[in-house]
Amino acid sequence: MENKSTSWGNVSEWYDSTVEDSDSYQQKVILPNLLRIVAPKEGVKILDVGCGTGTFARAFAEKGADVLGLDIGEELIEIAKNKSNNSLGQVRYIVASADNLSKLKEKDFDVAVIVLAIQNMKNLDLVMGEVSGKIKEGGKLILVINHPAFRIPQNSDWYYDSKDKIQYRKIARYMSEIEVPILMNPGNKNSKKTYSFHRPLQVYVKSLVKNSLFITRLEEWISHKESQKGPKKNLEDKARKEIPMFMCIECVKV
């Protein structure tokens, strides 16, 4: 079973407010792109793995899709259930670990999505195998991750070179798979931890192929944010447009 320490349930209210913020990456970058790629509509059956408080599940259901959201965090699922108010499709939720979907008997989903969640799941191959088994042949998996080449927890950051006057991304390591403890409440000495698992892109690709999921689309998404007025604003804004923060991988089950 997936270690429950990877759940964000302990900070469920903070998590929900962050994701729902109108200027968040989830609202300004990820949601519009997901709706474009998934194209949810009546008759489409969608599995949202690691659904959190249901932000994307609700959006799919509002377009008429039949959605099942699952997450290991009981507190997150409770919030998701309380917020569901779709008028077209339906959305259901269950508490489950993504690496063991034995309680989920359905195996005919048209689309499965894992949005900014696989990097908080330890057992990559188990998750891919379980999710693949729930998608019908010809169905799709949409995987959205923090860009593995540019967003490596505690091993990447923005830097400014005053000599060459350039804003750039410094990468300390990439090829090694690493497990990084993350404080849920930075600055609080009693903060609980979760874990992020960095993997190079080839590890994701090998796992997808191993589980009969073949890549049909790869996109890299940049930040929508802009810096406030200042001497480095133009350089910072330019860097954001050149260095993507997210990667989206679309696969077809064969």
Describe the structure.
The two termini are 27 Å apart. The strands form 3 sheets. The protein has a 7-stranded mixed beta sheet with strand order 3-2-1-4-5-11-10, sandwiched between helices. The chain has 254 residues and is of the alpha/beta class. Helices cover 28% and strands 30% of the residues. Strand 6 and strand 7 (166-171) form a beta hairpin. The mean pLDDT is 92. It contains 7 helices and 11 strands. It has helices spanning 12-20, 25-38, 55-62, 74-83, 124-132, 201-210, 233-242; strands spanning 45-49, 66-71, 90-95, 109-115, 135-146, 156-161, 166-171, 178-183, 193-198, 213-221, 246-253. Helix 5 runs parallel beside helix 6. It has one domain (4-253): Vaccinia Virus protein VP39 (Rossmann fold), CATH 3.40.50. It is globular and about 60 Å long.
Structural features:
7-stranded mixed beta sheet, globular
- State Rg: 18 Å
Low-pLDDT residue intervals, each spanning 5 or more residues = none
Strands ordered across the widest β-sheet: 3-2-1-4-5-11-10
Question: What sort of overall outline do the alpha carbons produce when their principal axes are compared?
Answer: globular
**Assembly annotation:** single chain
Helix fraction, binned, reads 25-40%
CATH superfamily: Vaccinia Virus protein VP39
Largest sheet: 7 strands, mixed
Task: Give the topology, please.
Layout: H1 12-20, H2 25-38, E1 45-49, H3 55-62, E2 66-71, H4 74-83, E3 90-95, E4 109-115, H5 124-132, E5 135-146, E6 156-161, E7 166-171, E8 178-183, E9 193-198, H6 201-210, E10 213-221, H7 233-242, E11 246-253
Parallel strand pairs: 1-2, 1-4, 2-3, 4-5
Antiparallel strand pairs: 5-11, 6-7, 8-9, 10-11
Helix pairs in contact: 5-6
